[in-house]
Specification:
Layout: H1 11-17, H2 23-64, E1 92-95, E2 110-113, E3 122-124, E4 129-132, E5 141-145, E6 156-161, E7 183-185, E8 190-193, E9 208-215, E10 231-232, H3 235-238
Antiparallel strand pairs: 1-2, 2-9, 3-8, 4-5, 4-7, 5-6, 6-9, 9-10
This protein binds zinc ion (ZN).
Residues 95, 107, 109, 111, 210 line the site of zinc ion.
C-alpha cells in the first residue's frame, strides 16, 4: 500500500543522500544493526499480531459480509459524545492508528471501508478548515485546521486519501480541482468518494478512505504523514478507540 502520492521524499532518504559519513563506515554500521533489527521486528510483530488479532478478525468478518455485523458500521456525520470531529464516511474502521501491515510498518491513520464498489461511498470533511489539493494529487486532499480543537494555539492538518480508482481516475468533488489551495470548507462538506487507488494500477487497495491527523512543521506546512511520528493519535478527535496500542479487541463504534 502506498501513500506516496504526495511525491515527497522521506526525510531519512534525504539524510542518507547528504550524509557526511564515509560510506564504508555507514555500511559497517548498517550490517551490525541488521541482527538487532531482525530481533526487534520479530518481537514487535509477535506482540502486535497477538494483541490485535481479535479486532482484525472481526473486521475481516465484516469485510467478507457487512451484514454479518451491522453493529460495526459507522455513519458519515456521526459525532461520538463531545468529540470535535464527525465521522467522515460510512463504513467500518478496519485498520486503526499504529496497526502494522508488514515488518516495520506503522499505520499513520484510520482506514474506513465502505463495503461498496469504488466511487459510491461519500467522504465528507470531519472538521472545518482550509482545503488544499496539490497539482499531482489524484486521490488526496488535506485540510488545514488553524486551531487544534484539543490544544489551543496549535495548527494541525487532516489528510484524506484513496479517493480515486485503481487507474487514478479521481473521485474528488469537482469543487476541488487539481491545484486547489486554501479553500474554506465546513464540517460535512462533500470531498469525494471512497476508492482503491494505491499508485500501482496492478495492486489496488480495498475500497476505503484513509484519514490521518497530521502535525504541522512549526512553520505552517504539513509534515509527511507516512511517518507515524508526524501524526497524532486520532482517538480523542473522533471519540473512538483508534489506537492499536490500547485497542486489541474492539471494532471502533460510538459507545
Ligand atoms: Zn490507511
Amino acid at each position: 500500500m502506498s501513500y506516496l502520492e504526495r511525491q515527497r521524499q522521506p526525510s531519512c532518504l534525504q539524510f542518507v543522500a547528504h550524509s557526511p559519513y564515509n560510506p564504508e563506515m555507514l555500511k559497517k554500521i548498517l550490517l551490525l544493526s541488521i541482527p538487532v533489527a531482525i530481533a526487534a521486528t520479530g518481537l514487535y510483530l509477535y506482540y502486535n499480531r497477538r494483541t490485535s488479532d481479535e479486532r482484525i478478525t472481526k473486521a475481516f468478518e465484516w469485510l467478507d459480509d457487512p451484514s454479518s455485523h451491522p453493529e460495526f458500521t459507522m455513519t458519515a456525520g456521526t459525532k461520538c459524545g463531545d468529540a470535535p470531529f464527525i465521522f467522515p464516511t460510512d463504513g467500518l474502521a478496519g485498520f486503526i492508528w499504529d496497526d502494522s501491515f508488514r515488518p516495520g510498518h506503522r499505520h499513520s491513520g484510520i482506514d474506513i471501508f465502505g463495503g461498496t464498489d469504488v466511487g459510491i461511498t461519500p467522504v465528507v470533511a470531519a472538521y472545518p478548515g482550509y482545503l488544499t489539493r496539490e497539482a499531482d494529487w489524484k486521490s488526496s486532499v488535506i485540510i488545514r485546521v488553524t486551531e487544534d480543537p484539543l490544544r489551543a494555539g496549535r495548527q494541525i492538518w487532516v489528510y484524506y486519501t484513496h479517493m480515486a480508482d485503481s487507474q487514478g481516475n479521481s473521485f474528488i468533488s469537482p469543487d476541488f480541482p487539481l491545484g486547489t489551495s486554501e479553500v474554506y470548507v465546513e464540517a460535512g462538506t462533500l470531498l469525494g468518494y471512497q476508492g482503491n487507488y494505491s499508485g500501482d494500477p496492478n495492486n489496488p487497495v480495498g475500497v476505503h478512505l484513509h484519514i490521518s491527523v497530521v502535525q504541522d512543521d512549526g512553520f505552517g506546512n504539513f509534515t509527511n504523514e507516512l511517518e507515524i511520528k508526524n501524526t497524532y493519535d486520532p482517538s480523542p478527535y473522533f471519540g473512538l478507540p483508534l489506537n492499536a496500542n490500547t485497542n486489541f479487541d474492539t471494532v471502533p463504534v460510538c459507545q
